[in-house]
Amino acid sequence: MAYITATYLIEAVSIVSALEARKALNPYGIQRKIEIEEITDCVTKNKLIKKLVILTLVVHMYGAISVKYVAGAESFEAGINHTFWNEEDGFRNWLGFNPYYLGLFVFGFGATYASFGNIENANTLQVVISILRFITTILMCIGSIYYIDHSGPHVAPVFNWRHQVKYLAQVFGNTTFILVYHHSLPGIVVPVRPQSGIRRMFLWSNIVGMVFLSVEALLAYFAFSSLTNFCVQPPDSDVRDFHAQFPCRVSGLYNENFLGLPGIGQICNFYPMFNISAVAVLNITLRNNLLEVFPIKQWLLKHNICTWLTKDHLNTVKGVWSIMLTIPVVAFVLIFRNVQSLVTYSGGFAGSGIMFTIPCVLVYLAR
Fold this sequence. Notes:
Elements: H1 2-24, H2 36-43, H3 47-84, H4 90-95, H5 99-114, H6 123-151, H7 161-164, H8 168-179, H9 185-189, H10 198-224, H11 264-269, H12 275-293, H13 296-303, H14 315-333, H15 339-366
Helix pairs in contact: 1-10, 1-15, 2-3, 3-5, 3-12, 3-14, 3-15, 5-12, 5-14, 6-10, 8-15, 12-14
């Protein structure tokens, strides 16, 4: 479904590009990045549709950015703890304050720095991170196989509806959250050459992703599904003498399941830090859409306030806008750290709107 609706959005981008090319007498093709807000403005004059589209985008992207900040900071904290100390508070005691906040700073600095520019300016970073993601996913699979071999399979019943029905919302939210990339699709397709291969590129990307995720999920099912002990003390737990036991139940951050494996555990645990590149893409998409839909630059020029912010063709100015848009995220994740709740609501509501509703509406109107 993710691939099908992606083709809908690609078609909508192509139609708007064709209309522009016809007016300018340019050869047909996707000549520039056309954000979702621009597509909406081109294909409909209905103000309600426009407002719903931008609201869905903003809610999901802020939710997704918040998830990745929390996950990155928590994995940074747990990874350092289990690499250099064998106690839960080793890093905190050495640092003198909660290392979660240091993790937020490290992650935020990297993600914001990478958003100085547009998506196509971060091609090298995206390629490197993609390779590291594949390597880390393979290591997680190896870790699961190791646990199955040394501790035996821990398999829960496949069908236990009375228990499983409580988690349907989480499963739907998680699945949608993982597969939604449609908000950044306009920036992804512009540099692809030849453009005739765009759909094939997305098809193979989805197939490869599906295979990797399916293998990873099946191995997790056989290795951890019936376990009840925790790998890392939950943030809301008041247990003072907590001791990690491995293997353990599937953690809120799956990478934490492998902290008990020397080498593999440390590498896998920093997996959420790779989201620096994903947050950069989300920041760029959020910034571009908001600057398009709200007359912020016009207001600054009219009142002669910080007029240098209107020169958003400069990468430094783009970066300043990204920093300002990140402030609400940082304020939020300082007080809220429940990753699963963020994923469930962000993916389940706004994410499904971006993956299913918006592409279908835009391609229908564009046609």
